[in-house]
Design a protein that fits this description.
The structure is a homodimer of 644-residue chains. Chain A is of the alpha/beta class. Chain A folds into five domains: 106 residues, Beta-grasp domain (Ubiquitin-like (UB roll), Roll); 72 residues, Ubiquitin-like (UB roll), CATH 3.10.20; 139 residues, Nucleotidyltransferase, domain 5, CATH 3.30.420.480; 150 residues, Nucleotidyltransferase, domain 5; 95 residues, no CATH class. Chain A is built from 16 helices and 29 strands. In chain A, the strands form seven sheets. Chain A has a six-stranded mixed β-sheet, with helices on both faces. In chain A, strands 28-27-18-19-20-29 form a six-stranded mixed β-sheet, with helices on both faces. In chain A, α10 crosses α14 and α11 crosses α13.
């Protein structure tokens, strides 16, 4: 088989690639992150790349667009004439037939996302699973030749009342050396008062743990002192599985269709986490082996792909997970390069689509300790909801599709530099102002040629503002009688210009189309209908609190979200964003083992409502497609300036 | 650094060896087994080799004795003139300085030992730790989307009353596939009703386990059905650690003196066990992964070296082990290539020199269920003893040295083909008859030129017969007034010819020297004195039972052993050999988990008596050096034909 040189820019990664490999496959082989929402099915059009022509002496290659396979019909459907003229190709469609220098434009790069998973300043009461116990032992003599482990256990009983904890294999290996090096004073790190994980010579005061939140898009790690609970470092990474498919279903499909898919996709996240671990410990002046405990959350698919469980059953009805209850697996079994005796505590799962991330939100928000009827919405690719109070909790999952994250939207993109994240439309002039991620001011002169697309919060703002300004009606249809050049027809369908060509880096206008509005309606309709069914099931008429969770949730303008009708009416003062509550939940579980038990109990108590089985769902969904709703009243919304 | 070709014969192993490497090191690098009792200290003289001169076209080398470093003073002390003339060298002293073809004579090869670890036909009541539980589950629907693990656990509770067993990581990974492949009928392999180790599609009836006995010299594996208890296969290997030192102390020294010593010596036994596992399962038509449970015994040093614990503290006073209690370690953590979820149960340890092998003997012999006062002697490089009955058990370890195994004896050797294993001396003529391992008959015509040395049981026979025939007196001194050419002087000291030069393969006579008799006296004196101290401690005057355990024990002639005075007087009808009782103990622990608890309890109850602390030891030892004893009476021995 022939092999050709492929060089990716701007990363500079290069390698010899077998003839006929797609550019997307080549990017994975070389560790280059290219967006691929559909997982290489040639349907999303997100993996745009182009070839630089010329002889590149520094690489010793001659690159030419003809060194890719011919332009395909699928690319014709997804790429504009303009793009085609500029030599843009889809990485999943074009195969390598010669030496190529491949340019990955910023909007196709996966590595550039703004990581929105800061740890909140939540106060967490401290009761870690792993604690340090310093002891001094009487040293052995011929009259008292008791073995090292029994000697240690006797001292732990005498000094701390610990009842004969077991000892993990790596700790047993370290024990004789540590006792003698420490001159019979050692510090034992013990998990749940049950298992000795490590024995250090002398007195050691600090132990560290890591809370991990594996999102479909972003992976975050929070390094904490287990003695003080203090956050010692935070580090985030793009989830490298993104290159195998943007959403959960695409990744499950990838695993199903590739014999080595599970191994690859799991290898990618483990490698990413080990890299994150090296960085977050290194920045704190620590070693990876200083991490003695890990608590981890993620949705059910991320959970399965991390553990290495075939996710296949999650992709087909009835969507059963392999396990609900929390897991404690040795880091060494999982391949995580922390202390080999560390346990990885993975929070429990409620159901196939209500995962350990939602359980994390649950123990962070504790609706089960409140009287108020609270709706928690975790907005992401799927919308997971928990409704209830101290008496009862219900959960559901809504297939919102990725529109609310900016995907499946003509100019949608992730929350990355260049994304429009806020939009306001003047009621009178219908002029648009917007804010771009990475550009501090709203003033137009700062944003010339910088916009690349619209991210999730911008999409919600945009459709809500189109409605507020009377540009679309309650059913989402564009009005056609408005005197503004921004409202225009494209291929016979109306669209509204958010950014003019001279305000974008694309060389064309960024618009919101009728199709985009429909996608948002479908997504928000699913959320709203889900919330209504949960309310009916609990027999309640109104919400007393709404909590918007998820890294993305904290960037949503709550008023715009309610104008759009993402959730039923609620006093806006009682609608709040809590940031990355799933990550908070992981930190809480790391620092307080009672909360692990609470999570286990609550995950079992939360009832899961399968929305697709409810016969009213279709009707609720149809009514909820309207903006904000066909019939429901929103007494807490400010009146519209005009009647749509 | 220069490298030379080294070829070992008869194994044919070859490789490029750096200049200056000793022949012994080279043999280890190439996996050739050469005897080395002293571990390369140039003191035992067992690693004799010679160089073949000539040009060997098939190997492309020219070999010459001068291609080794010059003859050393240490070799001069240990090799006879005759041997030196024949070009014999010590592998530990000679270094490689050019291409060599090295001949390893049979008596220096470690791979030839007769493995004397057959499983006994002991009846074992069956209650294995790992049992199979077949269940059929209701399959999941949207109305009942319970996760796989919870579904399995519910069925196990309903059908077998099992209380929510946990699940090991490999089993969790296999679970979703097994359930679907088995169409919701699966068989779970569960350990101690606590942990699901494996889940197989459909109904599976057979599960297998392996009992392992790691001796200093021989490793034995017993493959058993966990359903019927039946022995499905037996396989033995030389312990490859022999190349790092013949006895426990030499191996501990090797680890202390080499930074990578522990890793190497542990790697050798793991590799050996994995090879044994492949063979024993293959011969039974099974796969290594069919082994779901392992029970293992070995002396404390073998235990530590197998687990990977630094054995250093075992080599220096007060000889404390790292751990007494039994261990359950995952096979995957230990690197054993069986089912990855299998647990390796390692029996507990009594003390530094009374190991898991002795605990194996204990649960096989059960002296704690008897009224008779029983002495169990495990004869090996060390002599471990347990004395007691249902009321109390005491243990001790005697530093016998390896004389009783045939080492540190001029013509001593292991129990290998060519070894003299039985000796009788005619009271009148003082003529000798003997039996050689590998030669069926006692008749002289079958043994011409076949004797290579004397193994342990032959040494005991020899010294006892010298005493019975009046050739040595009670103090072990040779008489000088006997009219037989067999009694002769060598370098001014008397020796007795067992085999004439034309009866040996050595080209010289095999003799028992005054020094050899002294070595045996020291060894048996230590055993006897130990037994006496244990008896005093328990306040008893006479033994009611004596059990000779150990692979070697079963080959000892019990009458000759008592004539020699290896243990105090006892009715010979109540002296028995039990073969490899340690291996039986491993099988018992494999097949009956109640016996594991019993072992744990008994190992804690057995008191260890440190003989070196007892002030009467020296006096007892001195008296016990006499044959059979200076003062003790042996009413159960037949009277001697004459007064020595």
């Amino acid at each position: 088989m022939k092999r050709y040189q492929a060089i990716f820019q701007p990363s500079g990664r290069r390698g010899e690639i077998p003839e006929g490999t797609t550019v997307l496959e080549a990017s994975r082989l070389l560790g280059v992150g290219i967006e691929s929402v559909c997982g290489g099915k040639k349907t999303c059009g997100k993996c745009r790349i182009r070839i630089d022509s010329g002889t590149f002496d520094q690489y010793g290659i001659h690159s030419h667009p003809d060194h890719l396979s011919p332009f395909t019909g699928e690319e014709g459907k997804l790429l504009g004439e303009n793009e085609r003229a500029q030599g843009v190709r889809l990485a999943c469609a074009a195969t390598i037939q010669g030496d190529v220098l491949i340019v990955v434009p910023e909007e196709s790069q996966t590595g550039k996302q703004v990581v929105r998973k800061e740890a909140s300043e939540k106060k967490i009461s401290l009761n870690p699973a792993v604690r340090l116990f310093p002891v001094t032992l009487p040293f052995p003599t011929l009259n008292d030749p008791l073995g090292d482990y029994e000697r240690l256990v006797a001292a732990l009983l005498e000094r701390f009342g610990l009842q004969r904890p077991g000892i993990d294999y790596p700790a047993l290996l370290a024990l004789p050396g540590a006792l003698r090096k420490g001159n019979w004073t050692v510090t034992a790190a013990i998990w749940m008062e049950r298992e000795i994980l490590a024995v250090f010579p002398g007195e050691v005061e600090e132990a560290y743990g890591l809370a991990i939140d594996i999102g479909s898009t972003t992976v975050a790690g929070y390094l904490c002192s287990l003695r003080t609970g203090k956050l010692v470092g935070t580090e985030s990474r793009m989830n490298p599985q993104v290159t195998y498919g943007d959403d959960v279903i695409a990744r499950i499909t990838y695993v199903m269709e590739h014999p080595d898919g599970l191994e690859k996709i799991r290898g990618a996240i483990i490698e990413c986490l080990n890299d994150l671990i090296r960085t977050v410990t290194g920045n704190a002046g620590l070693f990876p082996s200083d991490i003695l405990d890990i608590a981890l959350v993620g949705n059910t698919a991320m959970h399965h792909l991390f553990v290495g469980i075939d996710p296949h059953p999650l992709g087909i009805s009835p969507f059963t997970p392999a396990v609900h209850r929390s897991l404690d697996i040795k880091a060494r079994d999982l391949g995580l390069a922390v202390h080999p005796a560390a346990n990885v505590h993975i929070l429990p799962i409620v159901a196939g689509f209500v995962g350990a991330d939602n359980v994390g939100v649950l123990i962070a928000e504790e609706p089960y300790r409140r009287d108020e009827m609270t709706l928690i919405i975790d907005v992401g690719t799927n919308g997971e909801m928990i409704l209830g109070n101290r008496k009862k909790l219900l959960s559901a999952s809504c297939a919102t599709g990725p529109a609310l994250e900016g995907a499946h939207i003509r100019f949608g993109m992730r929350a990355a530099p260049g994304a429009i994240e806020r939009i306001r439309i003047d009621r009178e002039t219908l002029e648009v102002s917007f804010k771009i991620i990475g550009v501090e001011r709203w003033r137009p002169e700062f944003r010339i040629k910088s916009a690349l697309g619209i991210c999730g919060s911008g999409v919600i703002d945009g459709v809500a503002e189109l409605y507020r300004a009377g540009i679309i009606d309650q059913s989402g249809r564009f009005r056609t009688d408005l005197a503004t050049p921004r409202l225009r027809m494209a291929e016979g369908k109306p669209e509204f210009v958010i950014a003019w060509p001279d305000e974008t880096a694309l060389g064309e206008a960024i618009t919101i189309s009728q199709q985009d509005v429909r996608s948002v309606q479908l997504a928000k309709g699913a959320l709203y209908a889900g919330a209504k069914l949960l309310m009916k099931e609990l027999g309640i008429e109104k919400l007393e609190r709404v909590v918007l969770a998820g890294a993305f949730g904290s960037y949503i303008d709550k008023t715009e979200a309610m104008i759009l009708g993402m959730f039923p009416d609620c006093n806006l003062d009682h609608v709040s964003s809590v940031g990355n509550a799933a990550g908070d939940g992981a930190r809480i579980a790391l620092l307080n083992c009672d909360k692990r038990l609470e999570a286990e109990e609550m995950a079992r108590q939360v009832e899961y409502l399968e929305l697709t089985l409810a016969k009213e769902f279709q009707q609720e969904f149809t009514s909820a497609l309207f903006i904000p709703h066909m019939t429901d009243a929103f007494p807490h919304l400010p009146p519209l300036d005009h009647k749509n």
